[in-house]
Amino acid sequence: MAKIEITDLQDHVRLDKKTILQMVRRVMKAEGRSAKSLSIVLTDNRHIRDLNREYLNRDGLTDVISFPLEDLDWPAGIHTATNGGLNGEIIASAELAFQQAEATHGDAQAELLLYVVHGLLHLMGYDDRTPQGAKRMHGREDALLEEFGFAGVYAGRSTVQ
Q1: pTM of the prediction?
Q2: Does the pLDDT at position 101 exceed 60?
Q3: Which of 30, 44, 51, 90 is at a distance of 20 to 30 A from 64, taking alpha carbons?
Q4: Rounded mean pLDDT of 82-88?
Q5: Long-range contacts of 109-112 (CB under 8 A, 24+ apart)
């Protein structure tokens, strides 16, 4: 069975770990993937900004960061080995989710789940750096969230912050 660990280091959005786990499992099943070892960390803006600077050399706030963790059993790595379980870490800013939800649709839980799904899809090889890739990825995010009962969380935005 997959090891999925959820760590909540913030106090901006109350989101049950069981809900996150259900969403992650739903995404995995929909994408025909599994998790070998997956860590999800909910944090605040300061912490994610520090991680963004330290590990990605970007001095700014972001909503989510995904770190693929290569599995020695699958030397090709997480992005290309579709038959192996995912190994990775997703760090999402619940503080930014709260702020973004307040400015748009008002549902901070849905916004935070969007960030987790976004990070998970990145670990599966989705890429939003081109307009075509972004359209594909964001459409998939909305479809997955809608299946989970959160309609149109991403719809209408030009970019995830």
Answers
A1: 0.88
A2: yes
A3: 30
A4: 76
A5: 109/13, 109/14, 109/15, 109/19, 110/145, 110/150, 110/153, 111/13, 111/153, 112/13, 112/15, 112/42
